[in-house]
Amino acid sequence: MVAKKVEERGGIERVANEGVCEVDLVHPAAVRRVRESLPEERATRRAAEVFGVLADPTRARIVYALSVEELCVCDVAAVAGLSVSAASHQLKRLRDSGVVDYHKEGRLAFYSLVDDHVRGLMEDGVARVLAAGAGVGVPAGANEAQGA
To answer: Which of 70, 78, 89, 96 is placed for a possible disulfide with 112 were both Cys, Cβ 3.0 to 4.6 Å?
Structure first.
């Protein structure tokens, strides 16, 4: 495919591939307003990284658990049904992404969420799923087996 830059009405430039309509921007003023209001790519990349780390069900459960209370690694393992080693690995992924942090008390490492923003995301996401009844109490794959 050959790509070329095309200038649309209102001076908005986009890339048009061969075989694709070259005139399809209907509302150039709206596109311009939205483009001007978008955050820097660095900010959206960082947000995507946080969502990416939360996309894993095990890490999501750990984050939700930490939204309730600060926990040591052994407690995280018990809550999540993991070995201490597996819990530690997941906590490191969360720490590396800036979602959680820890402090030591003697020989114990206690983990907590870095801020309330992730707590809010998890609580809102879970509340939305519970309100919709989506998959709550249904084993994985059960809907497909029932033809739903």
So the answer is: 70
- Give CA–CA dist 62/77, Å, rounded: 9
What is the Cα–Cα distance from 51 to 94, expressed in whole angstroms?
11
Q: Distance from first CA to last CA of the chain, Å, rounded?
A: 39
Predicted local confidence at residue 139, as pLDDT? 46
Mean pLDDT of 63-71: 95
For 15-50, the DSSP string reads: EEETTS-S---S-HHHHHHHHHHSPPHHHHHHHHHH
14 contacts: CB under 8 Å, gap ≥ 6 = 5, 6, 8, 25
Helix (H) or strand (E) holding 93: helix 84-96
Phi then psi for residue 8, to 5 deg, are: -95, 180
Band (31; pLDDT cuts 50, 70, 90): confident
Answer whether 0.85 is exceeded by the pTM: no
